[in-house]
Amino acid sequence: MLKRKVSHVLVVLFFFNSLFVINAAYAEQVVVYSARIEQLIKPMFDAFTKDTGIRVKYTTDKEGALLARLKAEGKNTPADMLITADAGNLWEAARAGLLKSVNSDVLSKNIPAHLRDPESAWFGLSIRARTIVYNIKKIAPADLSTYEDLADVKWRKRLCLRTSKKVYNQSLVAMMIAEHGEAESEKIVRGWIANLATDPLSDDTRAMEFVAAGRCDVTLVNTYYYGRLMEKNPNLPLAIFWPNQNNSGVHVNISGAGITQYSKNEKAAIKLLEYLSSEKAQSLFADVNMEYPVNPKIETDPAVAAWGIFKQNPMNIVKAGELQTTAVKLMDRAGYR
Ligand code: FE
């Protein structure tokens, strides 16, 4: 009798114990690999956990390292989601088979079609505009018109550019190839290079510092770098110009995400992705980096909105990936280092 009781207790204990183990193992969580730094993602993850009870674990690193890691881990990856900047990077992850297609009405509704993968392997979550910044003491807005015009001889020794090694410029040229074809784009890039005031610079901020110092008159940068620089030095003689407003529009790119091919928590991961595209998270996602929300229902941060409204290029950003190699080769031929 006593022996039976003891075994009963043991069975009950064992049962509760395994319940606990199952619970711990299956408590909902999403693991994110992010090339966006912690301060740009943590606020949204915290809000998501608060709303849904689903935990978010994340690792941040450079996009190249994260892609290499996903490839090496294969089926055993703990990652459910990849977050990174630039459609070129997301396209590369999808091409390498690291992302899976996601069918979600929420994502289709919240994100304009040109800012997500036609195969639904990745989705834009914020918009970055790559536009013209000029020295207000040397140039009037009326002098400026298009990206293509910066190849004109009138800009000789007046242009600064960031290095062609940066994916931002590869994407810009790739989108130009999609629009004008290779031969015409090469002419434009050659014109840019002929107009350089100095060798290509290491980053967008440095390019603007050169413009502010009068070493060149005009450059091409992502607007959030302009926002950061002007916040620090409000008196710099710099302003934004929105090119191509009478034709193709401003070149835009994205910061975005996709669900990994071997995600173990796919449902929760999709929930997080949908959440990041929602009205609740969108302003947070864009505002922390002075970017633009992808969700058209969301208002832009007032500090960013003050730079003015602009027409964006409506061509699908997938072209930035598809034509990236072509763009890199073209820039190399044109002497763009
Ligand atoms: Fe950047």
Task: Describe the model.
The protein is α/β, with parallel strands linked by helices and 337 residues long. The chain folds into 2 domains: 27-126 and 255-298, Periplasmic binding protein-like II (D-Maltodextrin-Binding Protein, domain 2, 3-Layer(aba) Sandwich); 128-251 and 317-333, D-Maltodextrin-Binding Protein, domain 2, CATH 3.40.190. 45% of the residues lie in helices and 16% in strands. α2 (38-52) links the parallel β1 and β2 (55-60). α6 (167-180) crosses α7 (182-194) and α6 crosses α14. The structure holds fe (iii) ion.
Task: Annotate the secondary structure layout.
Elements: H1 2-26, E1 29-34, H2 38-52, E2 55-60, H3 63-73, E3 81-85, H4 87-95, E4 99-100, H5 105-110, E5 123-135, E6 159-160, H6 167-180, H7 182-194, H8 204-212, E7 218-222, H9 223-232, E8 238-241, E9 251-260, H10 266-277, H11 279-287, E10 292-293, H12 302-305, H13 318-322, H14 324-333
Parallel strand pairs: 1-2, 1-3, 6-7
Antiparallel strand pairs: 3-9, 4-9, 5-7, 5-8, 5-9, 5-10
Helix pairs in contact: 6-7, 6-14, 7-14
This protein binds fe (iii) ion.
CATH topology of the largest domain: D-Maltodextrin-Binding Protein, domain 2
What's the domain count? Answer: 2
Q: What Rg do the Cα atoms give?
A: 24 Å
Unreliable parts: 9-25
* Number of E strands: 10
Q: What is the CATH architecture annotation of the largest domain?
A: 3-Layer(aba) Sandwich
What number is the mean pLDDT?
93
Bulk shape: globular
Bound molecules: fe (iii) ion
Most strands sheet: 10 strands, mixed
CATH homolog superfamily of the largest domain:
Periplasmic binding protein-like II
State the distance separating the first and last CA atoms: 86 Å
Beta-strand level of the residues, as a percent range? Answer: 15-25%
CATH domain class name of the largest domain: Alpha Beta
**SSE string, helices as H and strands as E:** HEHEHEHEHEEHHHEHEEHHEHHH
Helix content: 40-55%
Structural class: alpha/beta
The total count of helices amounts to 14
